[in-house]
Each structure stands twice: as structure tokens, then as C-alpha cells.
Sequence to fold (848 residues):
Amino acid sequence: MATIAMPGRVEAAAPARPAEPTGVWSWITTVDHKRIGTLYLFTALFFFVVGGTEALVIRLQLMKPNMGIVSADMYNQLFTMHGTTMVFLVIMPLSAAFFNYLIPLQIGARDVAFPRLNAFSYWVYALGGVFITAPIFLSLAPNGGWFGYAPLTTTAYSPTLNIDFWVIGLQILGISSLAAAFNFITTIINMRAPGMHLMRMPIFTWMSFVVQFLVILAFPVITVALVFLLFDRFFGTNFYTIAAGADPLLWQHLFWIFGHPEVYILILPAFGLVSEVLPTYSRKPLFGYPVMVYSGILIGFLGFGVWAHHMFSVGMGPIADSIFSLTTMLIAIPTGVKILNWISTMWGGQIRFTTAMLFGIALVALFTMGGISGIMHSSAAADLQQTDSYFVVAHFHYVLFGGAIFGIFAGVYHYFPKMTGRFLDETLGKWHFWVFFVAMNLTFFPMHFSGLLGMPRRIYTYDAGQGWELFNMMASLGAFLQGAGMLIFFYNMWRSYRQPATAPADPWGAPTLEWTIPSPPPDYNFAKLPQVTSRYPLWDEKGREAMIQHRAGDRIPSAEELHIPMPKSTAKPFVVALFMTCMLASLIFLHVEGMATVGILATIAFALAMVGTLYSWLLSPLE
Amino acid sequence: MTTATLTADHGHTHGAGGAATPEHQPHHTTLGLDHRKIAIWAFIGSECMLFISLISTYLIYKGKSLVGPYPHEKWTDPNTGETFNAILNIPVTSASTFVLLMSSLAMVLAHNAVINRTGKAKWWLLTTILLGTGFLGFQAYEFTSFVHEGLTIKTNLFGSSFFTLTGFHGAHVTVGVLWLCTLLAIDLKRGLKPEDGLIVDLSALYWHFVDVVWIAIFTLVYLIP
Ligand SMILES: [Cu+2]
Fold:
């Protein structure tokens, strides 16, 4: 869909669009939600390569029986960091890239509510990511699984620094997610354009809204669990010391009260993206919009009542097992409703099979498969057979790779022209998609079988003759094929970077506010405050002509010309994030022989520096 | 310290051109509330989960300590024959609870003084700060006397969960005291005006929240044996 070309109004003297600041310093000091979104996107893609490489080493090691590519200890670090990286450094920040980029555009706002806090969130994430990833080069990376079960992770069983990096790293990353969540909640509640009441909000913004509430309610729980572990390790408390009478399940309960909502924190943004993609390329409004909203809220709410389905094998007793079985089956209903609504959205539509649409449709199919194996686990009796086997690995990769990652790629192809003004090549995109789709199934489908044949998770090697060889070989080949798919994607991005920026405001004929402004949008986003009269303003009979604010060839005025006050660039959020990360990172020294005093002094020094710069930030005006 | 304005970090709702729409309010928001007001409520909601997790752990571990001293009953060490008193000192903590409650009252009066320009804001802020510091003093006394009586954070499950829970609360009070000191500094420098009601309101919400958490801790940890 091309927009109607208007007679060129480019003035010879003035540039077609205001000059963007360039250079590393401009990125360090930016408070623009779009540039911060871009930073999130590229940082998360970087960590995707890191986490993917870890997965490839894992698959190399498991390709054949009794391989010796890595030691058992290095293998522990690899699977721990693969999980930790993909959850906290890839999928959450990829979602955050879209929250940042899209929420203000979808609700017709100039920026998020607290632009500097937003920059702070990003820098805490980036620095925390480096902190938790770098130790792998010293063989000191976390090695207790992404769930870090205590007492296994207490000093008695994990005396080395590996777990300290994990505990402190996750605390740092949690601060980033929490700060961002307060920001987005305020933005969505308080910055909607006139006329955009809650039931006119784009569905991606809605799902993001639910996710932010999950973050602010779930992250404090893991914060407390991690504080206990930190105190046990550093100060000799007894929270996880069984010999002192501690409950061996305390960690598991606290972790999964966080951990299950975390699953929805990972998947709901992708659901939101796909709920934008499917209607656009079916040229039909989302089927049952209110039901989609309510089911999203219900999933978020019920998500806090199912955590113990991760613990059926610990012996909670028949009553607890039955209750958590039932709540888990219950939560499948709103999820199933979403699947049916997506199918109904496509039903009878004028479907265009763009790359974004293919990824979107694949999400519906693959997530359904992951959901069905999830229903199998909801039965405590069946779960006892499947738990800790590769069947579970297959299940959550269908949900998180087939679901979250495919949904995010649907979003990347859909929004790439909006973010950059350039198109990704559709032919390469389809190659990427099909390679990914085949590779994904080749990798994870056989794991159902190796799992049912009894192959346990997290083993670093296995003997021949147990019927696992073929399935492991298939999975390993599939994993490398996924790597090939990523190479196609990166080549596609690089290729489009070298193309001229030609994308119009609404290249796909999509219906929501972000498509009314230039691609990429100017720093102030909306030259004219949009008045929202419906859910899909660009699909209204007269709405389209009235709403589109930019046509091919129009000159884009600068913020000064429009008298729009813009926030000043500032490095203060970066500096505060740096001092805060250093402050928490210095705690590591408490566990290094003879360095405890240094650690305490460094922590105090960085804390003072952080408070000082924080005052300087808060006392300087935004604009 | 430049205290001309304590400007928090909030952007505009939208970027309508000032010249094009003169009626445009630069700080118009959907609910008509300041962004910071909504953010602090979200923050308080999140903090509730933090304290719920801490208090739940304390309650789960109640009565599970394998060795004393215990919170509510005497304990004799079977190895040494040494006897330890019940640790919690309800009268002293009742006094400190009263002090913290009074600080909330002073906070309300401070906010009121700012809104109504009575000129007494600095005195009420100072009172709140002193009462908050008094509470922290009680806590310091409590902690040191517990250590004297043989209970440290390492001793048993009670010590670990008690010191962590009340320590976290004390840290929140400390942050609140620093925040109020900042407001007092602003007031002394340029005088808090009714337009500053919001920034006082934000600190008051936080302060009352920390106070309410203490009521929960006092009831669940100290009063219920
Ligand atoms: Cu779960």
C-alpha cells in the first residue's frame, strides 16, 4: 500500500528533514524514546548472538554420544547463561525495544512520561548484561541454571564466584525492568491522545500495559529471593541453610511466583505485536478486540496463581498438586481464546503473505503446539513423567522461540520501515522465515521424543544405545540451520542500511496512529496532536486522509519551527546507571580472598557518587 | 546545590505546536494528574510485593529456628545451660511505633503548611525528620541490644528473617529521612510554595506507606506471639 503522492513541496533551501545528531556521545546522552528503543534493539540482538553461540556449543557437545567439546563445568555455565541470556538479555529487552519505540507512537505522545528515567533503564540493562556475561571468559559464569535453585546455589554447594555474578547481575537487571515498568505504566495511563480511551488503545499497547503490571508485581519477589541468597552467601544468614531448619522449597516458591508471570512477561508483548500484524495483512480489524484485551488481563492475573506447577515433583501433596493442576488448565482457556481470535481475524481476510505475516502465522501455529504440550504438563501425574526431561525443553522452546521470538521477528519486519525509513528485502526475509521455521522444528520437535525416551535436561553428555542419537543429531543440525537463518537476517539488515530511505508514512496500509507520521518519525513524533475517534483511525471512511500527517515529498519541520519543547540530551542517567552498576558489582569483592575491605570501600564510594549524580539529575530541568 | 526548582523527569503528553494551538496546555495529561503522582502509586504497589515477600518469609520461618534465642519465649542452650530471654521488647517497640505514627501526623501538617502558605512548613518538616530519626535511633538501640543478648543475623532463622525484614524497613525510613531533608533544604533556600504541593505530596505518600508497612510489621512480628 503506497500513500497517495502529493505534489512535491520540498523547499530548495531547507533540508527535507531536520538533521539528526550523530556520534557515540549523542547515543550516550539521548533521551529520545525512539533512539533508546533502537539501542535496546541492537543490544538485545548482540546478546541474541551471544546466547545463540552458547546454544550452538551446547548442541555441538550433544551432537553425538560422549563428545568432549567442553567440560562438564563449562557445560553448566553454558546452559545457565544460555537461559539467563535469552530470558533477561534478549527477549525482555527485545520487547522493551518495541515498548520504547511503539507505545508513545501508538498513543499519540511526544515521548514517554520520564525520558531520562528511560535512558537510565537502558543503561542499567546494557551494563548489567555485560556484568553477567563477561565472566564466561574467565570460566566464572553463573552455573546454577537460569532458575538458580537454592540450596544448590548457596556457598556450601557453590562456593565460587560464579553464582555471585548471577545474583548481583539479576539484581541489576531487575532494577532496569522495574524502572522501565513505572515509566510505561505512567505513560500509558497519562499520555494518551484526546479521544483514545482505554478500549481504543492499540492491542500492542494493551498487552504491554499488562506486562508492566506483571513486572512491578513479580520482580520484587525475585528481588527478595535474591537478597536472601546474597545475604546467605555474603553475610552468613540461614534463609536456605537446611541444617538451620530452613525450608528447602522457599527458593522454589519465591522464584516461581516470579518465574511464571515472567513467562507471560516474555510472551504477551509478542502476542501484542502479532495482534497488530495479523489484522494489517488480513485487512480486517482484530476479531473480538475486547475479548483479546480481557483475555490478556486474565492471563496476567491468573499467571500469579499457577507457579507451583513447576514443583509437582517436589512432593507438595495431592491437594496442592490438584489445585495447581486446575489453575494451570484454567489459564489455557484465555490463551486458547487468543489463538481462536487470531484465526478468526485471518478468516475471510485479504491475506498478504509478507514476511511479517508469515512470522505472525507461524507464531499462532508454533505457540499452539507449545501450548498443547504445556497442557500435558498441567496434569501433575503426566508431569512427573516429563519433568526435567527434554520433553520440557521442547515445550518451552516452542513457547518462547516459536512464540516470543517469532512474534518479535513479525514485529521487526513490520516496523522496520517505520523505525528506519527503509524496507527489509522481502525475498531475503522469506528465506529467513522458511529457514527459521524448518530449523526451529528440526531442532525442537525431536526433543519431544528424546524426552519421552528419558533423556534428562542439563546433562553434558550421554552414552550411545538409549535411542537418543538420531534426535540429538537432528536437533544439532537444526540449531546450526537457525544460525544460518540469523545470518540471512543480519545480511538483510546490512543490505537495507545501504538502501535509500524511501518508506512512506504508512507502507503497509496499517490502521493505527504510529503510521500517520513520517518514517522514521522526527524527534517530536506528532507535528499535530491527533484526535482519536476510533480503534483503527486510518481505516475509517474519511479518517485516512485526515489523519496521515506526512506524504511523500513533504518537508519535515524541526521541533523549533513547530515550537515544540524537547527534552535536553544529558549523560546524567548514564552516569547514575554506571555508578549504580559499579556499586553493586563491587560487592563481588566481598567474596574475593583479602579484598573484602576494598569491596566495602568501593561500594560506599560508588554509592556516594551515585547519590551525588542522582541529585544533580533530579535538580536539573528536563527541557 | 541549585534548588531553584526540584524538577522531576516528566515529559509532555504530546507535541502540539504552541503557535498553532495556543490553547494547548504544555502539561496536559489524560487523567489531569501529574505523571509523578501515578508513578509513585505504581512504585508503592511494587513495594507492597517486596514487603509481602519479606513478611511472608518471616512468618513461614516463625517457630522453625532450631536454636534460640526466640522472639517471644525464653530459651536455654542445652549445651551450655545458658538461658536467653525472649528477644522482642514490646514496650520499647511500642514507643518507637508511636514515634513513627506521630511522624506521619507531622508530615500531614507539613503538607498542609505548604499548601496553605502558613510559613510553618519548615518546622513540621523538621519535626517529621526528627521523629523519623528518632525511630531509626530506637531501631539502632534495638539491634545492638539484640546482638548483646545473643541474637545476630547469623544465629538462627528468626535472626536472619527478623533483621532482614526490619533492616529493609529501616533502610526505607532512612531514604525517607533523606528525601525530607532535601525538601527542608529547598524550603530554607527559597521557601516551598503551594505550587510545590506535589513534591511534598509525593514524599508524604512514600512516608505514609513506610509507616503503614511498619504497622503491619509491628502487628505480625511483635504483637502476635
Ligand atoms: Cu509456569
Remarks:
- Residues 72-106 of chain A form the longest helix (35 residues).
- Chain A touches chain B through 63 residues (CB under 8 Å).
- Chain A has two domains: 33-554, 573-623.
